[in-house]
Amino acid sequence: MATTEKKNLYTAEAQAVGGRSGHVRSSTGIIDLDMSVPEGLGGKKGATNPEELFAAGYSSCFQQALLVIAQRAGDRLDPETSVKCSVTLFQEGEGYGLAAILDVDLKSFDKQKTIEMVRQAHKICPYSVGTRGNMEVELRVQGEAISVDAQENAGVADKGGVQETQNAASV
After folding, report:
1. Cα 51 vs. chain centroid, distance in angstroms?
2. Would you list the DSSP string of the chain?
3. Which pLDDT tens digit goes with each residue over 92-117?
């Protein structure tokens, strides 16, 4: 089996001060945001939280993976195609974890083709690759869950659905 050399394409940097009740800023200054515990957990209005930022990044990245899959097949996505990502923070015992739902609406493709494209995108999306085996990711097409091969969430079931953090205080 041939091996492929890893080629770094881009590195993003951000710094946090004050944890969930602090501030984050990217090295470019484009992200410069107050952070808070989610409002529903007693946090303040007008601030974001790590789960919102993760959801925004994952949905954007997954949509790009769909664009790549479509292009490879000679297809074009409808400009109104959308990917909604919901990220849930949960506690299990002393550890905390995340779970995600990706809900895709490709608009112009039939359901079966959309399902196939979503599964292919899940194989190449950097967020999907990076979270595989570490958090549950549910795939949906227009609100309806689709089955995911066991290998797509490999390792999650062995961990009871969550990779516990070693230090709950870091959440």
Report:
1. 9
2. -------------EEEESGGGSEEEETTSS-EEEB-S-GGGT--TT-B-HHHHHHHHHHHHHHHHHHHHHHHTT----TT-EEEEEEEEEEETTEEEEEEEEEEE-SSS-HHHHHHHHHHHHHH-HHHHHHTTTBEEEEEETTEE----GGGGTTTGGGTTB---S-GGG-
3. 999 999 999 999 999 989 999 999 99
Q: What is the pLDDT of residue 51?
A: 96
Cβ neighbours around 48 below 10 Å, total = 16
Q: For tokens 């957990």, name the residue.
A: 41
